[in-house]
Amino acid sequence: MTRFAPLLAAISIGGCFVSNPAEFDDCSDDSDCPTGQDCVSGFCVDGDASDASVDAEVDEDMGVEDDMFMEDMGPETCDDFPELCGDKEGCCDGVCTPLGSGANCAACGDVCGAGTSCCQGACRDASAPECECPGGCDTGTEMCCSGTCTEVTEDPANCGGCGTTCDPGEICCGGGCVAMDANNCGGCGTTCAATEICCGAAGCKDPTLPGSCGSCSNVCVESQCVNRECCGDQDGEMECGGSCVNTNTNLNHCGGCGNECDRFLFSECRNGECRGL
């Protein structure tokens, strides 16, 4: 579950700001709230807030916790997830880039100088034996590119012809560069199911599994994936009814799933125990 610093000054519900989160009680409908208040996402709030959303996480010492905040993870990059890149690619400035060309020969930024060519993974004199294919290449779809017989129908550094490089984020399919997406994920024609996400060269992944929980690079090491978020990383977290809750602080699941604190007797759940008013 994503954690954020407690909001000590105020929380916002439906555009209304309340300075004392401890006054909030969980509710199931408007009848559970005092006159003049509505039940919104489990909280009693002032005014007509029936269409509002709750964007708050209250200090867990006050006994109420909401995990509706979603951390902005930003776009997936190969810096954090090298598996996004293929065997003939390098992670250059966070982008999977074909290697083997004059601009990125053996590695990112390995530029071959004047009079040299990138041949068999190194910058060499253009007339060097390594830059030739003395045995010849298959006349079908192979070409001699910098000393290597190359399948130009699938090589992103020589797509359709020697030196024709696909842009970052593209793969070579049938001699043409196409976007690496859900229709060509990890390979040409590999289509991801509607419930899967494309993780580049790593292929299609299930975002409900611990190895790709919600995103390609989010791995739940010692926890489970609940609603596309890792649940169990924090002390007291566990799945209850399909949601990830903290049983140390949650009034509805205090100390365990379904163990609800009586609101007439207890005002908070602390360390998994219902505490008095």
Classify the helix fraction into a percent range. under 10%
Mean pLDDT: 77
Report strand %. 25-35%
Tally of separate helices = 0
Any overview of this molecule?
- With 277 residues, this protein is mainly beta.
- The N terminus is likely disordered.
- The chain is elongated, with a radius of gyration of 28 Å.
- It has 3 domains: 59 residues, no CATH class; 118 residues, no CATH class; 72 residues, no CATH class.
The gist of it:
The chain is mostly beta strands and 277 residues long. The chain has strands at residues 11-13, 16-18, 37-40, 43-46, 89-92, 95-98, 116-119, 122-125, 142-145, 148-151, 170-173, 176-179, 197-198, 204-205, 224-226, 229-231, 237-240, 243-246, 266-270, 273-276.
